[in-house]
Amino acid sequence: MKKSVVFSLVYFVTMAVMLTPMSILGTEKSPPASQEKKEIYTPAPKASPRINGPLVYGCTPGKPFLYRIPCQGNRPVRFTVKGLPKTLKLDPSTGIISGKSPAKGTYALTIKAKNSKGKDSRELKIIAGDKLALTPPMGWNHWYAHYDRITDVMMREAADIMIKSGMADVGYNYVNIDDCWMNAPKNNDPKRVGPLRDDKGNILPNSHFPDMKALTGYIHDKGLKAGIYTSPSTLSCSGFAGTWQHEEQDARQFASWGFDFLKYDLCTYHRIAGKAISLEDHQKPFRQMGTILKSLDRDVVFNLCQYGRGEVWKWGGEVGGHCWRTSRDLGFELDRIFEVAIKNSEYRTYSKPGEWNDPDYIQIGWIGNASKMGNSELTPMPAAMQYAYMSLWSLMAAPLIYSGDMSKLDEFTLNVLCNPEVIEVNQDPLGECGTVIHRNEKCFVMIKNLVDGSKAIGFFNRGEKEAAVSAEWKELQVSDKQLVRDLWHQKDLGIFREKYIANVPAQGVVMVRITGKTK
Ligand code: GLA
């Protein structure tokens, strides 16, 4: 076939997919994103270094340590770190710090980065003790893009792209496998069907995952971390091997493979173990796994997935969890994001360093359809709403786990995912979830206190037309002179007395940080 014919065909098919009507894509409300000109809010990163990432990082003394300094700017960059404990070493060209976590204590580091265009420096506190995930976990999970099509090759590709796309340079670091890496008693794909365990009871990955240790090694070599999934039930939610009565054996297997994160998904557990009646029944499988994970020779971040049952936000931390889903799957009904966020923020007082409420993943770019389990499609969500989505998750201190197709990331999607000033709000060491104040039926503000005494404010508009939404300094109990910085556009808007009124696009956001001024 001639090149031009092939091109026309590819163009036609692409356009046909991009212009698929909303009714087919599953929501009737908003115009397809592809018909809209998507305004890019955030300027491109500068060529000179900008060090990003959390200000605090938790680890357990004596366990393996791995931290890749998130830093934007042209490569090569030369890194130096002052105050590094003796048990750790830095690779000055990659910015990867590795070794064994130091003895109990707080270690104040000064990180420096230099390239041909300039330099930057940033403080980081390593807190060696008994707490992990001092800031919300950030990374990628395969679920909403690939469902039961996930393979080792796709996981490696996601890790490559996390680095190449610049996502890792703003702090994304977990590369997490969800369900369907194990064998299933039955599945459409024969390569995923086989014995669930070997004769010693060890869980067996399916043939799309030939070598788990090599996979985590590949991810770790990039300075990134690896996550895995299982269920306390006999089978996972998608019908793959669960961990029932093999809890300790599986957890040790995951650690020996090198995993750093475990999503533990309730699924049909109570059908096997008996209906959950008491609080103890709700807690049991998670307390059991939480205790096992603490006894391992690796730090493993523990992600509870039980859809908010038994008011998990009240006890998730106590049973060893670091984050927990507060509701059912976000699925493909993405017009629910405002409602889900408002509900999630009702549990705001339970959000704190090491203990995070999780309203589910960030689904933008190319995502799948949970109910159809089909190939991924470009999200129909309007551009303004995508910025609102990321703002809400940041203001709520929710885990920032992207779950779209990494191989199809475009400039717009990366712009939404990778603004370091917005992410800094999410990663703020106070760990507060913002407070919601409703202005009217359509508009609300979300206000989050930050560690330096400043506040982040999201002005949200759920309506179909632009709206003016205000915040008064008196109501926020701040002094009457505030420097207002627009975080999405990374621009100071000036000093405002008494209040700020934002013109918020339909279904969108204006997100600012306000800092008190005495002069
Ligand atoms: C449940 C979880 C999802 C995903 C699937 C996998 O629905 O809530 O996040 O892990 O199971 O089967």
Domain module count: 3
On the 0 to 100 scale, the average pLDDT is 93
Helix count equals: 12
Number of strands: 27
Beta content: 25-35%
The CATH superfamily of the largest domain turns out to be Aldolase class I
Instruction: State the name of the first-level CATH class of the largest domain.
Output: Alpha Beta
**Ligands, ions, cofactors:** alpha-D-galactopyranose
CATH topology of the largest domain: TIM Barrel
The low-confidence parts are 1-31
What structural category arises from helix and sheet content? alpha/beta
> What Rg do the Cα atoms give?
23 Å
The major sheet is characterized as: 8 strands, parallel
Helix content: 10-25%
C-alpha end-to-end distance: 71 Å
Structural features, described:
This protein is of the alpha/beta class and 519 residues long. It has 3 domains: 5-33 and 133-426, Aldolase class I (TIM Barrel), CATH 3.20.20; 50-128, Immunoglobulin-like; 435-516, Sandwich (Immunoglobulin-like). The protein has helices at 3-18, 22-25, 143-146, 152-164, 212-221, 247-257, 269-273, 279-294, 337-344, 383-395, 411-417, 420-426; strands spanning 50-51, 56-59, 64-68, 71-72, 78-82, 88-91, 96-100, 105-115, 118-128, 138-141, 174-176, 225-230, 261-265, 301-305, 323-325, 356-358, 366-367, 377-378, 400-402, 435-438, 443-449, 455-461, 467-472, 481-486, 491-497, 499-504, 509-516. Helix 5 (212-221) links the parallel strand 11 (174-176) and strand 12 (225-230). The longest helix is centred in the first third of the chain and has 16 residues, at 3-18. The chain starts with a helix and ends with a strand. Mean pLDDT is 93; it is low at 1-31. Bound molecules: alpha-D-galactopyranose. The site of alpha-D-galactopyranose has 9 residues, from loops.
